[in-house]
Amino acid sequence: MLQWDVDSDYTQTGSNSNILVQNETIREEFNTLRFFPNSTQDNCYIVPAETQIIRYILRAGFYYGNYDGLSSPPTFNLFINDVKWATVNTSKNNGEPYYEEINYENNGSGFFKICLVQIKDGGLKIIYFRFDPLKFDEMYNRVWSKGVTPSNCDNFIGYTDVTATIENYPPYLVLMDSVQPTDTDTIILTVDLPQSAPQTAYFVFYVTELKEKSSIERRAMKLEIAGKYQGTVEAPSKGETAVITKYPVTVSGPTINIRLTRDKNSTLPPMIAGMEVFTKWDTGANHTDHSAAAAGVYITSAISLMIPFVFLLVA
């Protein structure tokens, strides 16, 4: 069983507050937060780690929840051991809770220093941070979020074979819910990347067929990632899921488009249930300046070793 610990022993700055009742979520840990009104001081967590070199999965969850009633979600930078990890925009994911996750090898110092640094963009000078526990109800501890359905698509829910063993073990609730274009032949999905520079990405697509196809019907789609053709995907029989993996794919941020287009010999439009995207980039030398390059590690792979450390709960 996972054990939570309050965060007051790990940071000396900031104050606690509650999310407005009308904005509370079903995940109780997101209904309290710590905010940091003083952007001139170091707003950091010091979290214990092993003294030997070990690779950790670190996950940070963010939720503004309009706790202050100002409707002004802030943006700030997140650093780990004085190296930039990510830029956090709390309006991301339509303002709902979201996560930044990283697979990070510690330096044997016995602790992680995780800091939040204000971006001076005229926005609200308050920043928020929390750790989230690993979720063992999902085999690889992934957090699945429902993205925004493209404006030209509708959601379709149907049957999938819950007895089947699907590669990577995606949750069946993900596979039962797909998007399909209504009046065009194309699905365009947008993915945010952790940095703008070229980086190596690993893509996994899950295509579940929710329709009982006749003998003359076929669902096939051309796959493009960032404008580059990646082959044709054939949907399986009803209730089955095809898993398509593309690696390595070199991409550049801050965003890329994934395009699924009806193949010329397909009688049915494209359809997709879910996808996973992991990226990797190099650290280079360690830096002590908060303008340093992004932390050089893996954005966590679903099959990486999970090593929990301390789970912090904002009291």
Automatic annotation (TrEMBL):
The chain crosses the membrane at residues 295-314. Keywords: Membrane, Transmembrane, Transmembrane helix. It is found in: Membrane. GO terms for cellular component: membrane. Its main location: membrane. It is a single-pass membrane protein. It comes from Daucus carota subsp. sativus. Residues 2-122, 137-279 form the Malectin-like domain. PANTHER family: CARBOHYDRATE-BINDING PROTEIN OF THE ER PROTEIN (PTHR45631:SF44), OS07G0107800 PROTEIN-RELATED (PTHR45631). InterPro entries: Malectin-like_Carb-bd_dom. This is Malectin-like domain-containing protein.
